[in-house]
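yo, Yip1 domain-containing protein is done. seq:
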Amino acid sequence: MHSLQILLSAFFDICRLRLRPQDLPASSVLLGLILLLYLVVTGTLSLIQFPINDAILLSLIEIGLLVVLTSSLLYITHYATRITQTITALAGTNSLLGILTLPLVLWIEYYNGDASLPVLLLLGLLVWNFVIHAHILRHALAVSFFMGFNLTLIIHLLSFSIINQLVTLT
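structure:
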């Protein structure tokens, strides 16, 4: 259990911009476990709006896009050795923020009318997610925070566009 606390603390420290993705172990087993956790979290969030089959499919697509786009970016920029740690950091922090997002999304669903506070909090989590991703990409690619933020925006817009196209097909 002590190792789990250390790992959880590391992801919280990445969310607080105190650790870098390189500070995580480069373990494919850890990456697999974190991706599984990310699948559970995104699947649970997707279940609020979609039937179970669609929720699982959309979650798998989201994870696939995270892996493919991040790996491609790191490979193209000659930082392929950082792929495992970077994806672990992104998926782990996304999982933490997803867990924080779940009660807000349920709050919005429950109070269909006046949900301004949870929407504002959700917007804050979205902005913080972008900051965390920019922080991770900054260190993974050895670029400025500004460049990390721009790459984060591009990756999120591309992912959103692809997922949105797939949702409109169903």
